[in-house]
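tool_call: predict_structure(chain=1)
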Amino acid sequence: MTAFGGPVAHIAMMEHEVVRRRGWLTREQFLDFVGAANLLPGPNSTELALHVGRERGGWRGLLIAGAAFILPSAILVGALAWVYVRFGSLPELAGVLHGVKPVVIAIMLQALWRLGRTAVRSPVLAAIALAVAVAAALGAGELLLLAAAGIVSALAAALARRGLRAKPLPLLLLVPGPAAGLAIQGTAAAFSLGTLFVTFLKIGSVLFGSGYVLLAFLRADFVERLGWLTGQQLLDAVAIGQVTPGPLFTTATFIGFLLAGVPGAILATVAIFLPAFVFVAASGPLIPRIRRSPTAGALLDGVTVASLALMAIVTWQLGREAIVDLPTLGIAVTAAAALFASRINSAWLILAGGLLGAALTYAS
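tool_result:
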């Protein structure tokens, strides 16, 4: 209930509790689990909690740790979703969200910068990221782009091990162009709980990288492919996910409630987190072997930078919907400056943005 600040803050809080305060794990064990979580699709901080629970209490510990980490946030997001559906048209709430959305964009930009400095470690990875960003902007499908980026990165690593230097420009030709993404475009589909469940299950099964990369998948599926949400509704969902503690993946709870009330919220939450439980339960003895494999490591590097490229495109798309006038531009720039210049908790900036947005709406 107190885990504000995103995956990095969640991991820091867990390290304090389970290593320093309670002594349940050694620092080396904890870092191994951090690495394992980064190798799996899904929400990293949630998977870390699952690893800790599994280590301490087997499958029962895994279930208890997962429920304790996810449920408080999901319940709170569900309650806020009810408020949004019931009172979302009130000027006061609209003003709050008007001020929060530019702060969310600033937070996404900071996350991109921080994660990108770590992930883009070579000219080849930088070229892959650029190619994926261009292809995604032109309409290529996100799953195909992630797969292609991983293969290209693994190919470059294989060439390097043979003493050959990969040329970034020829490798870019292997990244799919916009024609490969025509399948994600379509007219609005009829809503069904089954499609809702399967879509979130797919997202939870294939999403690598920061929780912010989730936004690329949500936009591709729910805004562009299915037509169930508008861009503004997605941005509102992201804003609610930001103002609540816990994993950003509980944005799915908000979307599920928005589309189908309590049943939709439950199904969406279960679907997006279920793969994490399965992956953690099954991956224990396999993680060290995967990380020692140069090919698998290079493939994961490519998937990671592609995820960040998709996140960059979605940040641009949502930014155009969030920053619509001089006040929202000022809020975004101020929030970004504060984030880059200090270690301020993003929750304070979100609170300030909401209050300022409400004040501006009231004044007008």
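agent: The chain has one domain: 6-93+120-319. Proceeding to next step.
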